[in-house]
Amino acid sequence: EVQLVESGGGLVQPGRSLKLSCAASGFTFSNYYMAWVRQAPKKGLEWVATISTSGSRTYYPDSVKGRFTISRDNAKSSLYLQMNSLKSEDTATYYCARHSPWEDVMDAWGQGASVTVSS
Amino acid sequence: DVQMTQSLSYLAASPGESVSISCKASKSISNYLAWYQQKPGEAYKLLIYSGSTLQSGTPSRFSGSGSGTDFTLTIRSLEPEDFGLYYCQQYYEKPLTFGSGTKLEIK
Questions:
Q1: What is the CA radius of gyration of chain A?
Q2: Nearest to A105 among B43, B49, B94 (CB)
């Protein structure tokens, strides 16, 4: 069974940093692109980052580019999201997701980690 | 960026009924459209991709249609477990973007 378990969420002050982790199991992690998707309170979903199988290619929307960094450790089947210079609008539940091998869609999701940016 | 619009934020229906949820793209995205479902306390689930291809495990009462800018998710003969939130997502180009969601509730 595919499992994605996020950790590292919490309350952080504006301008500070936070690093999320995602532990993957039930599939060959190194064979899949992985992603982070977030959902602000009472809002829709927003794609945050994608990383290639080897980690050599990363993709971000403009809203987080230069502040967030996605990375992975295939030996540990783990995905990470380093979030710097956090803003109140980054407050959201952050989901770790697996990309489908054939399409740019997410075919498995974690339960999410809550991040609150507030002073 | 491609804006995805789900015009109905809320929809109420009874078990056994059929419903359709619409999604409109701000420009043509061919058939690069996916549908997701979220139920309370559960992880998001991919239902349909390529506009109309059912993901493995998606019940056949679900169907997707459309191409270009207008898409529809249809659920025939609603089951109690179908009630929840539904989102569309385009993957024609990055940034990947989602609709605002449609909440399907029991009438």
A1: 13
A2: B49
Nearest to B29 by CA among B102, B95, B105: B95
Q: Which residues of B42-72 are buried (b: 16+ CB within 10 A; e: fewer)?
A: ebbbbbbbbbbebbeebeeebbbebeebebb
Please give the Cα distance from A8 to A18 (Å, whole number).
Answer: 8
**Residue among B6, B46, B98 with most chain A CBs within 10 A, to mutate:** B46
Cα–Cα distance between A64 and A90 in angstroms, integer? 9
**How far apart, in whole angstroms, are the C-alpha atoms of residue B84 and residue B41?**
11
The chain A residue lying nearest B94, using CA atoms, is A61
Structure tokens given for A30: 């190194």
In tens, the pLDDT along A12-42 reads: 999 999 999 999 999 999 999 999 999 999 9
- Pick A103's closest partner by Cβ from B44, B91, B98: B91
Tell me the chain B residues in contact with residue A43 when contact means C-beta distances shorter than 8 Å: 100
| Residues A77-117 pLDDT 10s | 999 999 999 999 999 999 999 999 888 999 999 999 999 99
The CA distance from A51 to B86, in Å, is 25
Structure tokens at B91: 């993957």
Closest to B51 measured CA to CA, from B87, B20, B103, B88: B88
B53-61, long-range: CB within 8 Å, 24+ apart, which pairs? B55/A107
Tokens representing residue A76 in the block: 């540990």
